[in-house]
Amino acid sequence: MALKLNPFVSQSQKLPAFALPPMASFRSPKVCMAYTLNSSTKEVESVKKPFMPPREVHVQVTHSMPPQKIEIFKSMEGWAEENILVHLKPVEKCWQPQDFLPDPASDGFEEQVRELRERAKELPDDYFVVLVGDMITEEALPTYQTMLNTLDGVRDETGASLSPWAVWTRAWTAEENRHGDLLNKYLYLSGRVDMRQIEKTIQYLIGSGMDPRTENSPYLGFIYTSFQERATFISHGNTARHARSMET
User: Fold this and answer.
1) Which of 38, 68, 176, 191 has its CA 20 to 30 A from that of 153?
2) What GO MF annotations does this protein's record show (predicted)?
3) Mean pLDDT over residues 153-177, rounded?
4) Number of domains in the chain
């Protein structure tokens, strides 16, 4: 899930990734992603019930890969270490969410936040709907790591396995975690969205899980993630381009 933004340099510079469009003629004050029941009775009843995600309606196929195909991935561990792990960037050379956000330790923090909010208030609601959807997708990262660790032959068997497949999964997850953090903090500071409703949506999403029907097969799993990662890259890139097109 690639994400490209320009860094927040100083309080005198405008945030380059999010610009001011013309004021929308009609706009609701906040964007919400979850619906709350108005009836207090229904709310009380729902609190009493244990959480139960939607039931699967299809037949789940698991562990469909024969042992000899699992052995192929085991035999490729040396190749994975030399050709895949090299693409992981050292943490100290990675951007961090704080690079693009107002610095809470600086004397100009409040002014930086006011500038961010002024710029954000001019963005139309439909843009924030997309941005919230992007953020929620990124925040479901625990689901994606869980899915990768269902794959036979490449899963992290101990939680700290030194298998190159497991090392890649953990390091990829650590890199991805920055994306949701950045979008979440930006939306929080913008004041344009109902964060509690968004947080509920994220909790529902992660609690419901995901079955991409990969049958515990790394062949199916890695094909799925290859297409999914590319699609997310395109989606986030389009979101950024729309933001830039709104610059005045």
Assistant:
1) 176
2) metal ion binding; stearoyl-[ACP] desaturase activity; stearoyl-CoA 9-desaturase activity
3) 98
4) 1
